[in-house]
Specification:
The chain is of the alpha/beta class. The protein has one domain (65-176, 196-289): Aminopeptidase (3-Layer(aba) Sandwich), CATH 3.40.630.40. Helix content is 40%, strand content 15%. The strands form two sheets. A six-stranded mixed sheet has the order 2-1-3-8-4-7, with helices on both faces. It has a two-stranded antiparallel ribbon with strand order 5-6. β5 and β6 form a beta hairpin. α3 crosses α8, α6 (202-220) packs across α8 (266-289) and α7 packs across α8. The model is unreliable at 1-47 (pLDDT under 50). Bound molecules: zinc ion. Zinc ion binds at residues 71-72, 78, 88, 142, 175.
Length: 291
């Protein structure tokens, strides 16, 4: 009991991630006779190692802040098109910048990008930036890939303990792998992430995330070709900020030649940015008028 309480205290005071997981593991192994609140799955503390990006837009800090995350980067190119070599990390950065420009043009929304160049960030640093900035919304931009080169269209993912279908599970496995290089896990999550435990405090955030995912489908559909089942669920590490509504937007299939051309073209990026910005505006307008 004493051990459990002491560990609970240590976990809640910003122990470095690797250490806190080790402590949690010790606590788990020690198996205290009774369950206490102090031993739960640790919510990883936001990493303070990465410099915070600049927040752009209106100076009024009461304006909503959106953090846009360009997936992959640096040594991690993400998926690529086998024919023309278009890489996910380049496409996501260009799309994130287009979304930022569109949002800044509204004059009503503050924006920060997790990366504005070709750098690598571990998954938790991405959501950690959103948490440290107290962002109101986190959108991680990606492009899908499949062996079936005919597969095409956009999908929005939100967090869930278990995947909505086999394909969503495969996608989570692939996107979560970004932290693993040469077998070394650069993040502090276990590499086996077939299931992510979700804290109760996260439920409300998950509802808001799902609301935004539905809006994104509705508002972006006139601009971006979506798949038929376009809102799916998966245990994606990058979406696990407990207090920031978060979605992962697979903007299309980079493995499909037509989608890759759309994602790579300035016109395609513009259409994606239009759709995302419209959804964001509606989302915050609704929040502002909610009772
Ligand atoms: Zn990706």
């Amino acid at each position: 009991m004493l051990t459990a309480l002491a560990l609970g205290f240590v976990l809640s005071t910003g122990t470095p991630p690797a250490q806190s997981r080790a402590l949690a593991q010790i606590a788990h192994n020690a198996r205290p006779p009774r369950k206490t609140h102090s031993i739960t799955v640790p919510i990883p503390p936001a990493s303070s190692a990465v410099a915070l990006p600049t927040v752009e837009g209106p100076r009024d800090s009461s304006r909503p802040l959106v953090v846009v995350d360009a997936g992959h980067g640096g040594h991690d190119p993400g998926a690529s098109n086998a024919q023309n070599g278009v890489r996910e990390k380049d496409v996501t950065l260009a799309i994130a910048r287009a979304i930022r420009a569109k949002l800044l043009a509204t004059g009503r929304i503050r924006v920060a990008l997790t990366r504005d160049d070709d750098r690598f960030l571990v998954l938790q640093e991405r959501s950690g930036i959103a948490r440290r900035l107290s962002a109101d919304l986190f959108i991680s931009i990606h492009a899908d890939a499949a062996e079936n080169l005919e597969a095409h269209g956009a999908t929005v993912y939100t967090l869930s303990e278990t995947a909505s279908d086999r394909e969503a599970a495969r996608l989570a496995a692939r996107e979560n792998k970004a932290d693993i290089i040469n077998g070394i896990n650069l993040g502090d999550q276990q590499s086996d992430v077939s299931s992510i435990l979700i804290d109760l405090t996260q439920r409300e955030t998950m509802t808001l995330s799902a609301n935004f995912a539905r809006l994104l489908q509705r508002e972006a559909a006139p601009f971006v070709p979506f798949r038929s089942a376009s809102h799916r669920f998966a245990s994606l590490i990058v979406l696990k900020a407990p207090d920031t509504p978060s979605v992962l937007f697979e903007t299309g299939y980079i493995s499909n030649t037509q989608d890759a051309a759309f994602l790579e073209s300035p016109a395609g990026r513009q259409r994606i940015a239009n759709g995302v910005a419209r959804a964001i505006e509606v989302y915050f307008a609704r929040k502002a008028t909610a009772p």
